[in-house]
């Protein structure tokens, strides 16, 4: 089961920090992160790709679901 981080409503850089911590802790597999701004999508995606993770983004209303896989 994938870990889910809800970073909605948090200001930068908190979503990126939480994302990096979750990805480093997981090491591989799947991690989901929920954010609510396009800037957070870009920043979290960039951080994950630097760590070698692949990213899929789905928008559900005002919420973006980032699915990281490695």
Distance between the termini: 14 Å
Strand order of the largest sheet: 1-2-4-3
Strand content range: 25-35%
Give the mean pLDDT.
95
How does the overall form come out from the CA principal axes?
globular
Q: Secondary-structure element order, as H and E?
A: EHEHEE
Sheet having the most strands? 4 strands, mixed
Low-confidence stretches: none
Structural class: alpha+beta
Cα gyration radius (Å): 11 Å
Number of helices: 2
Helix percent band: 25-40%
Count every beta strand, where a strand is a DSSP E run of 2 or more residues: 4
Tell me what the structure shows.
A hairpin with a 2-residue loop joins strand 3 and strand 4. 37% of the residues lie in helices and 34% in strands. It is of the alpha+beta class. The protein has helices at residues 14-26, 38-50; strands spanning 3-6, 30-35, 54-60, 63-69. It is built from 2 helices and 4 strands, in the order βαβαββ. It is globular, with a radius of gyration of 11 Å. It has a 4-stranded mixed sheet with strand order 1-2-4-3, with helices on one face.
């Amino acid at each position: 089961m994938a870990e889910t981080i809800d970073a909605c409503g948090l200001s930068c850089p908190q979503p990126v920090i939480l994302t990096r911590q979750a990805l480093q802790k997981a090491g591989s597999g799947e991690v989901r992160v929920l954010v609510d701004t396009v800037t957070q999508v870009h920043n979290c995606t960039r951080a994950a790709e630097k760590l070698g993770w692949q990213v899929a983004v789905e928008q559900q209303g005002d919420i973006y679901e980032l699915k990281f896989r490695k």
